[in-house]
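User: Predict the structure for this protein chain, please.
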Amino acid sequence: MKPTVIIIGRPNVGKSTLFNRLVGKKLALVDDQPGVTRDRRMGDAVIAGLEFTIVDTAGWEDEDAATLPGRMRKQTEVSLEGADAALFVIDARAGLTPLDEEIARWLRTQEIPVIAVANKAEGRAGDAGLYEAFSLGFGEPVALSAEHGEGVADLFDALYPIIGSFEDERAASDRAGEARDPDDLELGPLKLAIVGRPNAGKSTLINRLLGEDRLLTGPEAGITRDSIAVDWQWTDPDGEVRDIRLIDTAGMRKRAQVVDKLEKLSVADAKRAIDFAEVVVLLLDATRGLEHQDLKIASMVIEEGRALMIAINKWDMAGSEQVGDASRLFNGIKAALDDGLAQVRGLPLFAVSAKTGKGLDQMLKAAFEIREAWSKRVPTAALNRWFDDALEANPPPAPKGKRIKLRYITQAGTRPPRFVVFGTRLDMLPKSYERYLVNGIRKELGFDAVPVRVVLKSPKNPYAKD
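Assistant: Here is the predicted structure, written as structure tokens:
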């Protein structure tokens, strides 16, 4: 296990910028306005070979615990549990503030090594704040510019005495694991993203799965901004322990309604999370049913080639005046999905409740099954036997009396499954016949509702002029 280092500080001191600098990617959303980060975000950091897990946290604010800033601060406090070190970041240009001093008093009560980091210390404008940071009581502060990468070597010098011993233990563990059976290393964790409109209950559902308040929730719509990945182990109904990487995403509204810069960044981050995922769960709100925006999100997931499942959340309210007849709602959504997503019929549909836990085990079990189909490869011989039978049952048409010859098919790739059909005059093949082949692949070869790509390829005519 890698050591864990937490970044803590008041809003707008550059915590997320430092996080992005240490992980080497722009994972966390960054903006000039304070309070952008709301949930804890983890990443793999490395400085001169020193590897550790870095955790970005929400800005610490002195607000009532029931408010959104107060709940954000509670998440930051919880993040220190089990951590190996903390980076207390201040703004060197602004100097120490009363809130910085309050955070420092709280950190001194915690049993964790703390390194004071004076960020925005490029040039001489941050000298005064750097000198003030000595009064915090955490030893010599590290002068740093997260935006420009200055002072990272000094941060290494401060961190290594605290977490450097983990590096030797991890190296020994890696050497001990070299003799393990390679088959044990083949399957990685299921990358499962939860997407949907704002306030559908995505963060609440993940918290229910984890059994803890890991993600910030509340009645306010649009609380989640960053796409947050959480590694978790699920024990299935058969008692098998399975690894899952749960990915929470920001709610996606209609494009015309997204005018705020931060919301645009959040939606873009959610789209990147979909591209990273293997299976995507589109979460609907039972109190609102299926809306056009849900279909747009589903179409985007399918176009990206991800395996898609639909879950109707807040099913504990089914039968109430707000929801109405439960079976009619379920069947209505199922029919609307088949009509609105003709390219992938029969998507897995589940009734779940983040409040009670209803249906979550069945949903996760199906997620592993659909990943298997998404990753499946069909032997070429079996594939062409099916292909010959499909052509015999329904031969391709002959537009204007010209025969279309389909010769053979191969599977070009998986995740999503991609097939190439070879033949002549394929530019004349109707789209309806392509759909016939795609539907046959799904139904007969075990791909179910997985998005399938079929490419038509004709041999190049050597006598044709360029």
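The two ends are 59 Å apart (CA to CA).
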